[in-house]
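Human:
Focus on the backbone:
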Amino acid sequence: MELEFWGVRGTTPVSGRNFVKYGGHTPCGALRSSGGGLLVIDAGTGIKGLGERLMADSGKAALAVNILFTHFHLDHITGLPFFAPLYSPRAVITFHSPFAPKEIEKCLSGIQMGRYFPVAFKETASQKKFRRADEAGFKVGQFDISFCPLNHPQGSVAYRVEEGGWSVVFATDTEPPEHGLDERLAGFIRGATFFIYDATFTPEEYRVRQGWGHSTWLAGVNLARAAGVKNLVLSHFNPDHDDRQIAGIVRLAQKEFRRTFAAREGWTVRSEDE
């Protein structure tokens, strides 16, 4: 299995010389199975570059894409209208969410209607399918997938994707309980190879931002340690945190949990590397 990050910024995209190392695009990750199957997590602005890559690599062949949505806040869907396969008649795109199929379609159509966008979602050339994710677990190609509800305004979920003994958990957009660990999430991530976690705030910032639905590197460290994960990957970075600040956050986290990393655009991790 291969994991690649295409967008790791939360809330809104940013740009400039102080945001180069980790990148400014909002959330999008891609997983490839050992058999070549593709699974995309969220459709923030990072999905634009992924779409261009997919179109170039596929040539004139049919293209199958599965996209899992953690939730439908703008930073996680705003790149979809710029996803090149959406406009290709040779692409079949399956959209997955814990929502019912009609609700998924309604959420995604909303950003491409009226005066918001010149092309309606339903008018794009790709074939579209909508699937409700099964809380008991489900398969997409060679991937085994499960999800866990998170503490976030209007709701969000963490996904755990497994193949061949490798497991990746995406758990951004969540807030820790007032006291102690999120025990449900700790159980869900137990033993994961990569635990990708919300590091929007520093612990100091979080004191005045409780209730905003986001977390800290320290909460991530505590979860990773309690659940015995192999690697903690901080992500969903605050648009106000530049490269220098993120590097400092990672150094602090590494003092508490040595195998802590910062997600960054273009970083690819392969199962054989671990």
Remarks:
- The chain has one domain: 2-273.
- The radius of gyration is 18 Å.
